[in-house]
Predict the structure.
Amino acid sequence: DVKVTQSSRYLVKRTGEKVFLECVQDMDHENMFWYRQDPGLGLRLIYFSYDVKMKEKGDIPEGYSVSREKKERFSLILESASTNQTSMYLCASSLTGANNQPQHFGDGTRLSIL
Amino acid sequence: AQKITQTQPGMFVQEKEAVTLDCTYDTSDPSYGLFWYKQPSSGEMIFLIYQGSYDQQNATEGRYSLNFQKARKSANLVISASQLGDSAMYFCAMREPRGNDMRFGAGTRLTVKP
């Protein structure tokens, strides 16, 4: 089974802090994704990566950056956290970008910015 | 433009009965993949079932089946013999050849009554 591990289930940070959310997958997947999930808005794609050191902006990249130095790890960075970034963050991976490949998700990180 | 539409914000079903969760989608690509995910209150997204646009038969996975009507662009999830543990949010999603990401609907909250 695919295992996608997010470093924290719950995280509380302060406004202005630099925040790192880590995600690791163990199945040699090419593609990795970061979403945020908010009530009534569903899942919105922040960034995705289709290869090491490659990244593409999703629908809502503002205020975020990402890093993929190794194939198995995809990090989401909040450069200067703000209260409107309080949300549930979900990391996912898929074997390839083909349209028959499901995305496999981590357990999510509930991030609160005070 | 909204690509995935789930018109039922909430659904109730009696334990042991079947329930259908609706999903319609919009695409001009002849090749695409459709997926359903379950999200319990604990937050993780669990992949349930996949249907390819060229598949001749409806997909089935245990108690889950997908009622795929290509001409109507609908991909409804049918859960048979509902169990209390089926209470969760359910998301329909689509993956197209262009781009690597997946588009999600707003979700349907299913509650199974004892």
